[in-house]
Specification:
mainly beta
């Protein structure tokens, strides 16, 4: 065999992958060209869809249709921009390269960049509101099924946090608002954002969230962790020794703070007392606006709750909704009845001829009769159902008990599901 034939045979064999597939030499190992835009943006920290000079994103590349923890090919690589939509690797030696064999890959990216991320869980902490842009978490997972045949990676980022803006006008134009303090009680302060699927974990800390306020006190803003319900949350304004409050959970039109949504309240306030009113408010999905009127009234600062949901510090039934979606929480309340159907409207506040053993209703007081003020509890079959259902235990009506379970939406209210422990008459079960 001639020398050039041997050389051709060697090269041909080399270009066959270990799986037996022919490698396309035209694809090679090309760098990814990163282009990023922010969708649904209006009045955010960016101007239109432009990034600021020095903005940094974190980039992941993984095998197509795999999870980050098993298919990772590029892990949290820092990319930066000088403005505009083009991003390049902060360290040229870390430029993300497509697989040499031309196989398909997916990209996940986030902003702002953090160097240390454990188990693909991005730590979120909105306690300090001084730097709003550092709290405006953006996420992209749209760039999928790409390969080196077309190295252009177009990332669409969307907001993962909520934003609340207050425009405050004193009724007296000469009034001084410079010492105003504004907060939301029982706000979610810390959590984790799962980069693998773009979801937020249950909050790990709840408390007072203080707004960033302009020097004249007429503008305030806060980036918030989304909250699926506003029950137990209060907007508090303190000015010149006067406290004004608004029960966010009482709003018929705004029942949650959703991701990617900006809520604007225009408030007219009289610092000398009597009342502050909100002339209008709006919800902007960063491009969609609706308006309504609400009123902020003088009152006492309720503060944030100190209950933790542990056995020694259980939640009341009115505090529990703040911890929606958290598991293994202890809740206390009085047994006030049960439900005959799958809605809270079927509430029965007695233990006579009970027709269901799968649930009970708790309340803050033993004499509660209003269905909407009850707290539904699921009773799984077994010991928990045996000792708590009112059909077999009518004497439980009116008793204060403690239960452990998962705080969930149940019967059209926030209640307790997967109940696995109970404390009644001084005895813990099972």
């Amino acid at each position: 065999m001639k020398t050039k034939d041997l050389l051709f045979l060697f090269i041909s064999l080399f270009l066959i992958s270990c799986e037996g597939e022919i490698i396309d030499k035209s694809l090679g190992s090309r760098p990814a060209n990163i282009n990023a835009i922010i969708t649904n943006v209006n009045n955010s920290r960016m101007t239109g869809d432009a990034w600021e000079n020095g903005d940094s994103i974190g980039m992941y590349m993984k095998k197509e249709n795999t999870n980050l923890n098993v298919g990772i090919l590029a892990d949290n690589i820092k990319y930066v921009t000088t403005g505009g939509s083009t991003f390049t690797a902060a360290n040229p030696d870390e430029d993300i390269l497509f697989p040499f064999n031309g196989s398909n890959v997916d990209f996940i990216a986030y902003f702002p960049y953090k160097k240390n991320i454990s188990n693909y869980a991005y730590p979120v902490d909105v306690t300090n509101q001084n730097n709003q842009s550092a709290l405006d978490l953006l996420y992209s997972n749209n760039a999928i099924g790409l390969n080196s045949a077309n190295p252009n990676v177009n990332l669409n980022f969307s907001h993962q946090m909520s934003k609340v803006v207050l425009n405050i006008t004193p009724e007296n134009p000469t009034a001084d608002l410079s010492d105003i303090t504004i907060k939301i009680t029982n706000a979610s302060l810390k959590t984790q954002f799962l980069l693998s699927d773009g979801s937020l974990s249950a909050p790990t800390e709840i408390g007072d969230l203080f707004f960033k306020i302009s020097s004249d006190g007429k503008f305030a803003e806060a980036i918030l962790i989304p909250m699926s319900n506003l029950i137990g949350r209060t907007l508090v304004l303190i000015i010149a020794g006067e406290t004004y409050i608004y029960d966010l959970g009482s709003n018929a039109n705004i029942s949650s703070f959703d991701k990617g949504t900006k809520y604007t309240f225009n408030i007219v306030i009289n610092p000398s007392g009597v009342q502050a009113t909100v002339s209008s408010s709006s919800i902007a999905s960063w491009n969609e606006v609706t308006e309504e009127d609400i009123a902020i009234i003088p009152g006492n600062d309720p503060g944030s709750i100190t209950s933790t949901g542990e056995f020694d510090n259980p939640l009341s039934v009115t505090e529990a909704p703040i911890f929606l979606d958290q598991k293994d929480m202890w809740v206390k309340g009085y047994v006030v009845g049960y439900y005959t159907s799958t809605s809270y409207t079927s509430f029965v506040n007695n233990a006579t001829e009970v027709t269901s053993t799968s649930n009970i209703a708790l309340a803050l007081t033993p004499t509660e009769t209003e269905p909407k003020k009850t707290f539904p509890v699921q009773l799984p079959s077994g010991t928990i159902r045996d000792i708590l259902n009112l059909q077999d235990n009518p004497q439980n009506l009116g008793k204060e008990i403690m239960l452990r379970g998962d705080i969930s939406n149940y019967y059209g209210l926030v209640g307790l599901k997967n109940t696995d422990r109970a404390f009644i008459d001084g005895v813990e079960y099972p």
